[in-house]
Amino acid sequence: xxxxxxxxxxxxxxxxxxxxxxxxxxxxxxxxxxxxxxxxxxxxxxxxxxxxxxxxxxxxxxxxxxxxxxxxxxxxxxxxxxxxxxxxxxxxxxxxxxxxxxxxxxxxxxxxxxxxxxxxxxxxxxxxxxxxxxxxxxxxxxxxxxxxxxxxxxxxxxxxxxxxxxxxxxxxxxxxxxxxxxxxxxxxxxxxxxxxxxxxxxxxxxxxxxxxxxxxxxxxxxxxxxxxxxxxxxxxx
Amino acid sequence: xxxxxxxxxxxxxxxxxxxxxxxxxxxxxxxxxxxxxxxxxxxxxxxxxxxxxxxxxxxxxxxxxxxxxxxxxxxxxxxxxxxxxxxxxxxxxxxxxxxxxxxxxxxxxxxxxxxxxxxxxxxxxxxxxxxxxxxxxxxxxxxxxxxxxxxxxxxxxxxxxxxxxxxxxxxxxxxxxxxxxxxxxxxxxxxxxxxxxxxxxxxxxxxxxxxxxxxxxxxxxxxxxxxxxxxxxxxxxxxxxxxxxxxxxxxxxxxxxxxxxxxxxxxxxxxxxxxxxxxxxxxxxxxxxxxxxxxxxxxxxxxxxxxxxxxxxxxxxxxxxxxxxxxxxxxxxxxxxxxxxxxxxxxxxxxxxxxxxxxxxxxxxxxxxxxxxxxxxxxxxxxxxxxxxxxxxxxxxxxxxxxxxxxxxxxxxxxxxxxxxxxxxxxxxxxxxxxxxxxxxxxxxxxxxxxxxxxxxxxxxxxxxxxxxxxxxxxxxxxxxxxxxxxxxxxxxxxxxxxxxxxxxxxxxxxxxxxxxxx
Lengths: 237, 519
What we know:
The structure holds 2 protein chains of 2 kinds.
Chain A: H1 3-14, H2 52-64, E1 68-72, H3 77-86, H4 89-93, E2 100-104, E3 120-124, H5 132-136, E4 140-143, E5 147-149, E6 154-157, E7 174-180, E8 184-185, H6 188-195, E9 203-206, E10 211-212, E11 220-221, E12 228-234
Parallel strand pairs in A: 1-12, 2-3, 2-4, 4-7, 5-8, 7-12
Antiparallel strand pairs in A: 5-6, 6-9, 10-11
Chain B: H1 43-50, H2 54-76, H3 81-97, H4 99-112, E1 116-120, H5 123-136, E2 141-144, H6 148-152, H7 155-161, E3 165-168, H8 171-178, H9 195-205, H10 217-234, E4 237-240, E5 244-246, E6 251-256, H11 260-266, E7 270-276, E8 280-281, H12 287-298, E9 306-311, E10 321-327, H13 331-335, H14 351-355, H15 357-362, H16 373-383, H17 409-413, H18 420-436, H19 443-455, H20 458-468, E11 480-481, H21 489-492, E12 497-498, H22 505-514
Parallel strand pairs in B: 1-10, 2-3, 2-4, 4-7, 5-8, 7-10
Antiparallel strand pairs in B: 5-6, 6-9, 11-12
Helix pairs in contact in B: 3-12, 16-18
């Protein structure tokens, strides 16, 4: 019997299905009762997606986990990105090398329009992906996002062209993430249901910069993932 | 031991015994057992040993107090927490009932998206599968995401025997691995170490740790980042566990904090995920329940910093070869138990460890299993049932259900409402039954039988009661018997016995009635 068949046969025996032999310990179980799953939990918040209240809560939760948040209008976005790039630690410590960014292929070009001439932007495309070494040498990454949840301070990237493949938003030490306020929902179920349209896309849920609590359960921000997370919240008005 | 260059070497296998404070083992007395679910002495003896360690108790007390406070705060802010627990519990019950279908669906969906699904009856088979994949990729080193399933099967030790170095990348697992130690907590395996111990471990064993490394947690975390960065960027093969597998879509989820998980799941060409067969949820939307319950229960955060979800292989993004190993290793024996099967609902949050008054004092190593604490006390004996885990005093694991005061705190915090106290009681009964069926002369059973004869008859009970008042003389001035004669000495060896009263209730009643004390 193959391992597959044997494991499935053991499970059937454990669930008391007739004529299926026994488990490894020689047991036969009883059939479990039918289960109805109660779903009394909240599937939506009190506040509408994109409302002032959810945006305010998102800002509060992001800052609680040491992310840096700026709220801007669409017109102000390019200048805000340029200002953050000018302040990057790499730009300050090593002025001889130009600041280098990576942007996924589908990122709106206009967002990077205000960068100064000495900033180098690498576009990561499916045809010419950067190597791990290339990415490691860059100062920051700029991406869009799919959806955000205010109660938990979570932003989700799903690998579409404006967010890039997972390595792009992982290896650089600084992540500039642009979130539109109409992408912000209050609860986890609202977020999951927006994502469930495309469950096959590789997703990264991000709640603040990387962190660890492994030493005496003290939270320390910044381990292997980007140590700095800047969130640019863009409201349409 | 030779100079440690920071590449975790071959872990020594012990003879499965404890002790072993050999001169080359500066960081602790726990050697690597052959059986990750059964090592060392039985719980009572092991606990006696660990209770002598004041440092351990101080470290654990500090850590569990911290995490209890954090958890209580973030659970308190969720208005529908109990509804989420109810849903989580029922979804898991449903998963167990539909397990054959759900596994087949998961397999089909992972395969359709370019993944390869393997099945493993036991630890040896799972280890062999992972080794063969690493060999086929000519990898002499694999990077690992923290995973209880791979702890349980002793994968690192097996790979080491095969000449493949498994590098733990979670900070706490790295600490445990560098110290050649065993984990003592499901979530924070190095919870028994404080910051200065960790600094010493890094200085002596990490190889590239800075000379002037301090014991500030931030500095220690940065040393780990620098140490592992090159590994992440160059590794060919990664091994992970899975927190959830979605049957309907073939999606797998790993929940983590540091980004080591993202690194392992993204950068190498090949990914092998070892997942227990019980880790399923039926639909993608079910994640909306568990991804609320898990982070708040485990690290006491509203959401853990990173959660990765992937479905088979995504062209141009992440590993282009993906293997999923579905592991039984005793789970079907647990499933066969009508009472104990809900132990399989566990999502490994470790909230039950943090609230347990027993765990907080004895620490994880006393349980002799990679699953310590209340959940370990019900899971370990059942997982090892086929090798005697429930066979009574013949097996060290059969003492684990006694590692509890039955206070019920574990049940209160369990995000999927596993009734751990009831299962503990059931397993205790099983252990007693197992011993009874073997021994010919059983004083306990004889005493119970005698008590049953006495108590089933009013006259006999009255006589026995009057006889018991003779024991009043044994009590001291405080009315307590500290040293009773045999066989009651078995009780008074470890506890006091209240002295029997001068008269029985029946005698007292009769006297009062004589005095005209009718009401």
